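A note from the maintainers: we've had questions about how concatenated examples are separated. There is no special marker in the raw files; a new sequence line simply starts the next protein. For clarity in this README we add a label.
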Amino acid sequence: MTDRIVLAYSGGLDTSVAIRWLGEETGAEVVAVAIDLGQYGGEASGDMEVVRQRALDCGAVESIVVEAKDEFAEGFCLPALKANALYMDRYPLVSALSRPLIVKHLAEAAKMHGATIVSHGCTGKGNDQVRFEVGIGALAPALKVIAPVRDYAWTREKAIRYAEERNLPIDVNKKSPYSIDQNVWGRAVETGFLEDIWNGPIEDVYSYTSDPSQPREADEVIISFEAGTPVAIDGQKVTVLEAIQQLNKRAGAQGIGRLDMVEDRLVGIKSREIYEAPGAIALITAHQELESVTVERDLARYKRGVDQRWGELAYDGLWYSPLKKALDAFIEEAQRPVTGDVRMTLHAGRAVPTGRRSDHGLYDFNLATYDEGDEFDQSLAKGFVDLWGLPSKIAAKRDAHL
């Protein structure tokens, strides 16, 4: 029986060329697996039927398209939202969240089609090679991995020449200056003139967001949560996917979610990336605001550290690790009281909370007010302050004599 390779297929140049190349080099049949994560166009033109047919035309024996937008939103974006996941305090893990879901479907396809090898189109400089291969190792450790672009030093020029020589059905003349990865959670853009970190991004870079400097009316939105999950927008019930999609449009129209950053890649180099994630940034902003009202102080302080570590694990390709699983359980427990509404003004590139309410809130007006009705016994404060500062006071007296 002929061996089979399952290929993570995007519909772009590298993975389309990989179908033919893998077949020629290994003699194996290639099964292409494309995952619909709400790409909104991009390199594969967004038409998943076109993507499916392109794989077959390039030589795949089977071409599978998995509709996974809801699965992605519920199983990957939502945990990131509950963790307020922002790598380096800024990046909402656009690409990092999609890779473990793709890996899951690759492993399932390999089992279904009797494949012993999986393949991907990642380079040796990026994080995605780690995310794919560590994930495969966790879910299907018996599978081998082939990475043609990395392991055989492919360049875009080589791939174009290969496609032209074999008359592969790829329009190689439309050479974009950028490398783009996108899904419903956001969009990542790199390479081209952006590799000079002094060059500012131009409007041509952006697709999910409008220019925040252009005059427009502000947009007020109320986002409702139950146990950390967004369940309604302006009183209308939504799924997690619908919440992301609606806020992508509304926050995107206000230019919210644009990021220009030099980030620390897992492989040890720094890389300049342009991101736009309007829905993700709006939801995380609202979620953080509601947590500030509903999560007890010490738990909130500790969770901030957990959130940071959670984001690092997801970024570093350790989605299926024991630590990530344990942190998921902690975060889920911390979300139990995170129910209520947050009102925000979306305008000029910013999502600004202007109101918050919750039946599970810890804010007590009668304790917080300075007006009539104040129930806070200020006479207790002096003794508290004295005891709180006592260790520092004693140490200062000692240090004065050292």
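[label: protein 2]
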Amino acid sequence: MKAVRVHAYHEDPKIDDIPEPTIQGPLDVIIKVGGAGVCRTDLHIINGDWAEAMAPDLPYVIGHENAGWVHEIGDGVTNVAVGDTVILHPQPSCGLCLACRRGKDMQCENAFFPGLSSNDGGMAEYLRTTARACIKLDPTTNPADVAALADAGITAYHAVRKAVPDLFPGTTAVVQGVGGLGHIAVQALAAITGTRIVVVDRNPDALALAKQIGADETVLADGNHIQTVLDLTNGRGGDVVFDFVAEQGAELDAWAMTAPAGSQYILGYGGEFKAPTLDFVGGEKNVIGNIVGTYADLSELMVLAQAGKVTLHTKQYPLDAALDALHDLDAGRVRGRAILVP
């Protein structure tokens, strides 16, 4: 089968012919990939940013946002059958450790992460995962239309879900960066909260999309955007600021736009956060980190998606054009999410 593999860091991946994955355990599931999202984390992987944390053996197949059809199942699989249309939670969990028992899949002690660890990911024709990762979809669903909800979607939704108690009517949520994750956050905020939504981005096209999908106000990141947000909120700032950029100083912009007793949710990464301790004490401001989301988050998000309340805006590429997709993402030429379709 064809697969996109990283052979060396700081170099473009290669499209290789490799053997198809095989069943290795009773709960294994082989997926015929119908769509694989292209994520900014893939760029970080290629750059070697995750090499020490995940220690993958090179070469390996990237791609952690995947949906498709069940192709083969292990002897112990009962929740899906061959032919089912599914979306995959990006990090299969064991279900037995204390974190899993508490519903915190992303802290599972025995998890693996296809496409990020040494387990091959989904930028390929087939992918091996486990039954615990599979969520069945309506059979009419096109996997390419929803694949990126498996990571970009639940990362954004997870943060919004956590912030819901602070986003009652009369509050303001600021979304900084309305790309692949941010445009999903805007829709989730509109669907499950009563907050006013203010979107900040440096790209006018991104702001136009944000307005179409639920933003109440849009602000061009032109150097005066912090003051503009403060003006829109009577000098307070956002009760919650979702920072989907968090690099090149944007993480400090988000902090400056956060109201007293408010919270900055950091979802992007690559920068460095610094703030006076007096801001925390005197302003009672919070910084909250986020990584992906739980299986339950993905289940809830798919209910919203199949009800038409969250729509993934995509640009599709054939698997052979994976390098074009990665380069377009890196250059900021993708509105929404790039999707590879084998």
